[in-house]
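Anyone else keep sequences and structure tokens together like this?

Example one:
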Amino acid sequence: MWCDGLNDKRMWSIFEEISRVPRESGNEEGIRNFLLSWAKENGFRAERDEIGNVFIYANASEGYENVPPIALQGHMDMVCVKKDGSSHDFTKDPIEIEYDGKFIKAKDTTLGADNGIAIAMSLALISDPECHHGPIEIILTISEETGLTGAFNIDPEKVRAKRMINLDSEEDGILYIGCAGGVDLDSTLSFKKEENQYTKAYRIEVSGLLGGHSGGEIDKERGNAIKILARALKSLGKFSFSEIEGGTKKNVIPSYAYAIVATDSAIMKKIEKVEKEVRNELKNADPNVRITVTPTEKPALIIPNRAKKRIIDALFSAPHGVRTMSTSIKGIVETSNNLAIVRTSEESITVTNSIRSNIGSSKENHLETLKTLYSAFGFKNKASDGYPEWEPNLSSPLLKEVEKLYKEITGKKPKVTAIHAGLECGIINKRIKGMDSLSLGPDLFDVHSVNEHIVAQSAERISSLLKEMVSRMR
């Protein structure tokens, strides 16, 4: 087995088990049934609430009966992305895990350590007979990746704990006490296609990009396939297209996009020029970007010129990436935008942007900026309800206790900061009166992409730290 050379067999065996179970956001029935069955087989009480979240309860060890309960929290869903050409079926195929002696990753797909490692750590902790602790409540939510649905609808009656450790952050040695809020914007332009009078057709593809989490990797200056495609199309001159597609999820930086283009002109040299420019610009941040042109079947209908121009100009003009850096917490992104998805139907095109900010007013201001931009090109806008930012509390009793224990156990002082990615803590804090929370986790890289990988020793270190912490908490 891939984990034979690792120390924490209990945790990695559980991780292997959950990796066999389909758990894409919105398809969590399999993992929910696994968790409920696992709890029953191992002698723990477990429940689900109306929305589908799972709660597993571990009684206090002998001598720990008077310790206040603590919650360990994560989400059961994962972002499912696979390499171009992969036949992997996320509705039934297991994730194929690989270990190279340092990193754990998956073959041709996302690994799902975001947030499967939280499940594995939590279940390993309560099932370890050598780990002594007070009452523990494991909270595992649904559809975190697609709208924080489980957190927004969590049943407060299922939770007695007023202290919560979220296990959904991705950097060892850091305690997170705040996160960005977010809102999504769908902008749609309608059109009526017309007969194609052009003589040639090509499929133009942008690929080879790293992609990644639109919160965790937005500051890495990686390429956005939709932006690059718009730039390439804008260089062509006289042309139109029948379709343009790009991106996979709202919280994933687009790594692939394509367009079916109709033209009478020679376009290869123009595309090659743009590719050369982009490869030079991204040579350090995203060096494997490619723009390819392949002759294809001539489409019968194309988008009329006026609509085509509006679409290309809107995509070309739309901002992507970091908008502002925090002036309160050094090195933290304050506001960002992910130009996430573009989809074409027979009569319209929809562009999805995902906005994040650690300041609510900045989030709303950037949303209005995007609405204004797309409206100027004739698009109609519809914003989601969004989710709130989690404001840092440096006076948190839980933070003070965990900081103290962290230093006692490791001999090092943890870094305390906020994260630009969205976490469920702020929502759960509001849903459950009196809840005090923080977030920690192992080193995890390139989440929401096929390059997702976790540092094995870091995961084992955090798992061990967590067990030692709960044994000392009072």
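And example two:
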Amino acid sequence: MVKPAKTAASRTPRKGGNPSGRRKAASRGRKKKTASKWLFFKRWPSWVIWAGAVSLCAAYILFFYYFFIGPYSFRWKAIYGDPVYPEGFDVHGIDVSHYQEEIDWELLRNASLDTSPVSFVFIKATEGTTLLDDNFNLNFYEAKQNDFVRGAYHFFLPDVDARAQARFFLKQVHLEPGDLPPVLDVEKTGGLTVAQLRKAVKTWLDIVEAEYGVKPIIYTGYRFKLDYLNTPVFNEYPYWIAHYYVERLEYKGPWHFWQHTDCGRVDGIRGNVDCNIFNGSMEELMRLTIPEPDLSVEPEDTL
């Protein structure tokens, strides 16, 4: 028996109602929202809207320049990753840590930065009171074996006892004549006041200077130096200033080293490496190193 076909009127509507009706309703809802947004903007004169947009763009440009490009900027990696090698300096070097992983020191020995050989290497040694860099001992040994002028630095944690940090550095690091003075890397305040930070930094410097008989080098950013360490007391120390992607270092005081890029490339190291210049000749760099002990001075007779 053939069942009669259902007419349009006799068909039972599917659950959920008419889909096309729902789409139209949703479309009307979106139009209402869009219209309400435009009404909000229409409440303001067009010149106000344009002035606000221009102000926002200007604020963004100023912010970006101040924190990442200008003379007070500290760390910024170039957009295209191209290192900048300042002109007028002959003595170039790098600083390394475990982030550079295994270094091919034979390749590095014959490598060059731009057109200059790698003359010196700073090596991360310690941090706080417990962390010895994984690759420090190997890197420190290989730097000596491959005739680099080498140095070792301590990453300072301001909220950790400065005396304990100095003792930990001296326990782990044994600099020799011909090595660069010990380096204190100061980049953070650790929640300390300016006075507290200065006291802690000076404590570390005094203890380490007493051990080696030379003033340690202070590594920091240009802006950090001006904000926290810009006093006559700290101006007595050699400075290693970090300031990236500028044609010249804006710091007006005396300085010895300038870390000018964090994305240098050099044979022997996979990936990027920090690059530095020394503000002087190779002879002046050697005069900065720890001197040989004066054997002509006889110890006093205590009898």
